[in-house]
Amino acid sequence: MYSVKYQSFVKSAVIAAVSFAPSVVLAAGGKESKGGLPQLDLTTWPTQIFWLIVTFAIAYVLMSRLVTPKIGSVLENRASKIASDLESAKAADAEAKATFDSYEKALSDARNEAAAQAAAAMAEAKANAQASEEALAKKLGTKIKKAEAKLADMRSEAMENLEDIAADAASQAVQQLAGIKATKAVLGKHIKNAAKTVAPQEAN
Amino acid sequence: MHSPVKQFTIEVLYELSLFGFDISFTNSALFMVLAVIVSTLFLAVAMRPAAVVPGRLQSAAEMMYEFVADMVRSNVGSEGRPYFPFIFTLFVFVLFSNLLGMLPYSYTTTSQIIVTFAMASFIFVAVTLIGLIKHGLHFFSFFVPAGAPKPLYPLIILIEVVSYFVRPVSLSVRLFANMLAGHTMLKVFAGLAVMMAGAGGVTAAGSLLPLLAIIGLTGLEFLVAALQAYVFTILTCMYLNDALHLH
Q1: Which residues pair with B26 in a beta bridge?
Q2: pLDDT tens-digit series, residues B111-168
Q3: Rounded to an integer, what distance in angstroms lies between the CA atom of residue A42 and that of residue A49?
Q4: What's the ipTM?
Q5: Closest partner residue to B114 among A49, A70, A75, by Cβ?
Q6: Structural domain tally of chain B?
Q7: Range of the structural domain that residue B233 is part of
Q8: Considering the domain boundaries, does residue B202 fall inside one?
Q9: Is B1 part of a structural domain of the chain?
Q10: A75 contacts in chain B (CB < 8 Å)
């Protein structure tokens, strides 16, 4: 059994050998010519055909085994390198996009949280301020009431003392002017009446 | 004065023979060997860095490879892949033979009809065999163009068969004639310049004209050297495509 590769090699070799037949026939029938073109000197044909076959065969082996696979592999490497570079560039681009998106998301999250916290703090501060204001108002209110009550007490006390002082002063004045000894009870009655007419005016 | 075709003379450098055949190592053989050595060295040295970002030399080698690869891909298709190394070798061999021939005192192997005919006939027979192996007897439908009126069949088939068998001749003569004509023309103008310079007087001053013509022709010959290598290779691709895909 021949391998497929061996068979195809044999086929190619047979094709090549048969294809040289016209040249060999030409070479075999060589005759010397006198004058004219050197190309038509048939005696030179066999050697030229022989060396053409030898050199071309060597060239074919060199080109098909050494040169074309080398150039082909370099070109293939370049194509695959470009393709892989493009792919990695695409991947990097996608990664950058994802990073940017997550950064954007983190930023907006932080912004929302900050806004919420600020609103909560504001509300708390407002509530605190309101509460303390109310407490203060309450405290001040009681203080004012107390002070007013005290003031009213002091006033009524002062009024009573004023009646006594007025009665004393009036009895002494009467004694010295008229030499009459006015009783306190009589005087007190008059003074009370007088005070009653004055007091409303003062209260205003 | 030397004959302008003397440059094509085969000179034996080392006498050899095999089974009665003369296989002497000649100037023609020397330049075939040089074409192989120079082309392989050029491509090997250029690809030595094997860099992802190629330098100037490596770019040149890669461009040659991709030029031939594109040619095979667009003219033969994916079925042409197995033949790529052969077609690449053919292009490189013909190109370097043509270009080495442009060096002064060198020899242009592709100016030998037997060399170009040996290559062309090899390609012709090989391509025909590939077609026969792939398509069997159906291969002969290649000579019957589709849609042709039946009464014209004998004429058309005759024309198709003749044009098919003329292929190796036209392929080899095209390359050979271009090299022969170009190099002969250069020698003719060079000989003219020397002759006029030797005549003296006004004619000597006029020798500048053929000299200028040589400069222009040399540039043209470099173009022809590359172009004919390309034409030879692309026609090979087309013949291969015909054999693989018929019409």
Answers
A1: B12
A2: 988 899 999 999 999 999 999 998 888 888 888 877 777 888 888 888 888 989 999 9
A3: 11
A4: 0.88
A5: A49
A6: 1
A7: 6-245
A8: yes
A9: no
A10: 62, 65-66
